[in-house]
């Protein structure tokens, strides 16, 4: 096993290491459908995310990764179990930018600031500061149709940060982007995570993306989703997606993911 990798299998809980967790899921179950004919999507998920920790979630399609993120975000409720997120409600960033096309980049961010309770007189300056943070200084007045795909995702990230939470939930936010743009945004989210000391829970299907970004990779089994295995990644940041260390760890994790898919008869 690589010295940059430590693993834990069959653990009842993935514990936060530094005091109280930023996110705690305890024996969470989620089913959809009417009683007696419900389909279990998540089963007995216990997972902690420490303050300032970057955790990626991997698993086959349909294993409940996005459902789990929606539960943590408070967009849905678990069928059983508890979810604790001390502090401000988590900020959620989707695969699609979901920007309002009739508003400028800056006004999209100002709307999030207004909902977060920022006084009107302070919103313009704060929106411009957040655009600078995501390297879009000067784009306040740009309409959505004037922005490239990568720029739109930067605005979406700035809007998420405008919510003022120390927990950022990201649901495959870079999946639709080309490889070069995605690579640049990997650098940006790593920088912002470190600067803002955010706890990040990041869903992806891309194993190399998971290894490049995370301090810890959590693999969910297929239908219903359970914590199957975790890997603690000790490679120094910043990382390159093409580096030997990232590639080696990705191969090991991919083999485990394939094994989960075979065990559950998924394709």
UniProtKB/TrEMBL annotation:
PROSITE patterns hit by this protein: ABC_TRANSPORTER_1 (PS00211), ABC_TRANSPORTER_2 (PS50893)
A molecular-function term among this protein's GO annotations: ATP hydrolysis activity
Domain of life: Bacteria
Gene3D superfamilies: P-loop containing nucleotide triphosphate hydrolases
Entry keyword annotation includes Nucleotide-binding: yes
Keyword Transmembrane helix applies: no
All residue ranges annotated as the ABC transporter domain in the record: 23-247
Keywords assigned: ATP-binding, Nucleotide-binding, Transport
Protein name: NitT/TauT family transport system ATP-binding protein
Native species: Kitasatospora atroaurantiaca
Organism taxonomic ancestry: Bacteria, Bacillati, Actinomycetota, Actinomycetes, Kitasatosporales
